[in-house]
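Bit of a strange request maybe. I'm writing a small parser for C-alpha cell strings and I need a real example to test against, not something I typed by hand. Could someone generate the C-alpha cells for this chain?
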Amino acid sequence: GLGMQKLFQDIISGIFILVDKTVMVNDVIEIDKKIGKITQVGLRTTKAITHDEKVLVIPNHKFLNEILYNWTQNDERTRESINVGVAYGTDVDLVKALLFGIAVQDDAIMNDPEPIIFFEDFGDSALIFRLHFYIGDSFHLPQVQSRLRYKIYNTFNENNISIPFPQRDVYVYNSKKE
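Reply from user aminoacidic:
Good idea to test on real output. This should exercise your parser:
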C-alpha cells in the first residue's frame, strides 16, 4: 500500500513537472545538497548527472516536497564568486586591478556584465575580497573556480602579494605541583 502510494505520488509529481516545467533537460539543479545537470525527465523519476559523472535518479515527489534550487531556470548564465584574502598593508587598488584582469582573461567568464570586485571585510588575518562574475555554463563552475584560484595564487606571487593564514600563539603551562 505504501509503495503504491509513493508510486502514484511520483507519477502525479512527474505530470506537474512536465506541465509547469519546474525542471527541464540541461537545467542545473541542487537538491539534497547534490548538484546535477538534468538529462531526462520521466513520469516517475528524473535523472541528472553529477560533476563526478554519477547518475542521480530522483523520485519526482522530491521536487514537490523538498527545496529545489534550479540554477538555470531563469537563464543559462549564473552569477558566481570566489573569495580571497590578502595581507594587511597590501595595495588594495592593485588587488582589485589584478583580480579584474584575471577574470576578464578567462574564456568561461562573461564580459557582459563585466566582473566586479568587492572589498568585503577586514578579517582577523586578512583583507577579504570577493570576485563576482557571470558564467554561461554553471555546471562547470568547480573547474572555473579552480582555474581562477590557480591564476590568482600565481599572479599574487608574481606581484609579491601575500595570502595570509590565521596564526595563533599557543602557550603551554605546567600546572604540575610538587
